[in-house]
Fold this sequence. Notes:
By secondary structure, the chain is an alpha+beta fold. It folds into two domains: 1-43, N-terminal domain of TfIIb, CATH 2.20.25.10; 45-141, 2-Layer Sandwich (GMP Synthetase, Chain A, domain 3). The strands form two sheets. Strands 1-2-3 form a three-stranded antiparallel sheet, with no helix packed on it. Helix 1 (45-67) crosses helix 2 (108-121). It is built from three helices and six strands.
Amino acid sequence: MSALYTTKVAATGGRHGHIRSEDGLLDINLALPRQLGGKGDATNPETLFAGGYAACFENAILHVSRDAGLRFADADVEVVAEIGLSRNESGGFVLSAALAVRMAGVDQKKAEELVAAAHRICPYTNAIRGNVDVGFTISAHEARA
């Protein structure tokens, strides 16, 4: 199977280092969060993952919505991803994920159907399926603001 898109990001210095994408659009320092004993003066891998997952999952919702004949304005759908870092029983590090999805213009049942469909096609979800449980909070209201 050929890739639809590929990108490269180089990392140096680990969690106290720097990352730079091959196109130079991502070029930032990393720091250990204060909660883990670091300075917290820069972003970290979990924040980057949360941002990527939220954007990707929202796009998956928009994709399945179009397939269902629905159109959303940008402000009609919001996904907030919460990524946690903890240790498992053997002392290894593991991630947890929770997605809070807000949708305007549909009822709760339709919102839940769209989220379930998006959960089947989202590349981030598919990448972590079987390794990270993803929790959902879904809120919908039919009137668009």
